[in-house]
Structure formats: structure tokens, C-alpha cells
Design brief:
four-stranded mixed beta sheet, alpha+beta, elongated, five-stranded antiparallel beta sheet
Length: 189
Amino acid sequence: MKADKRGGFELSVTTLVIIVIAVVLLILGLAFLRRIFGVATESVSVLDEQVKNKLKTMFGEEVGNIVVYNPEVNIKPGTNGFRMAVGGRTWTGYSVEEDRLSFEVTVDNVNCPGNPEDWVLDPEPGSGYPHGPEDFDAIDVDKGFVDIILNIPEGTPECTFKIRFGIKDKDGNTARKTITVHVIRRGFF
């Protein structure tokens, strides 16, 4: 009878030790995940800032009022949230708000099935009106920046479409750049 009680006591102590170890591992795991996602969020913010800075330096290097970070893009089907940075600046040097710089996004289907306009999420293409200064994602005095976001549906065959980004100021000055998007074959991985 005494042996049974000692065995029961050892079993309950073992159970408590296992529970304590499990709780410690759970807490360490959660702290590790929190740290990883904190660093990842910070990295995305840093990359976003670097892209904006690159666009600003490209304005100094290029002639024209529109800068596209990458004017030709290869993207695989099933890709969601693919961002393309585009910047526009005023002709006069006045601020984007004062000059009421507006932009417009249109999509030209070259050879894609369906409607690639549905794949461009922001800003809304084909809306029939130019987007005003308040629609830029970021404004730096005479420059406005916007992310064009693509979601390419799974199963889309290889094809090409073009995104035309145009800007216009209140005096009627206009500029336009084209971004060519190639939907490429998905690899094994």
C-alpha cells in the first residue's frame, strides 16, 4: 500500500515538472515570435523608407516628372500584395497640395486572359477620374509617392500587361510612364 502512495506522489511531481517546463517553453516561444515579428516589421519600414529615398534621388538624376522604381516587373501567378513604387512631382516646384497634382492609373491588356485591371488594387484603375493629392501614399513638398499593388490570381498563364501612370497639374501639364508587367511561369518552389 505504501509503495502505491509513493508512486502516485512521484507521478504527480513528474506531471508538475512537465507542466512547468511546458509553460516556460511556451513563454520563451512567444517571446521569440514577438521578437522576430518586431524585427520584420521594422525591416519593412526601413525598406519602405529606402525605396522613397531612392525615388527622391532618382528625381535628381532623371529628366521628367515621374519616376518608376522598377519599370519592368516579372511576377508569378498567385502573388498577392506585390508593390511597385511610383513618384510624381510638380512642374512649378510648389507643394503637391498647392499645385493640386493628380494622378491616374490605367491598365492596358496586351495578351492576358481576363481583366488585368482587376489585379491592380491601389489606386483603383479605370475609375474615370484622376486621383487627387490626398490619394498619394506619401508627400514630400513637391513630390508625391504611391504604391501600386498587384494581386495576380493563381493559375494565370504567362502573359503581359501594361500599367500607365500619368500625372497632371492644375495648369494642364501632363506626364506619363509605363510599367510593363510580365506574368511568368511559376517554378517548382
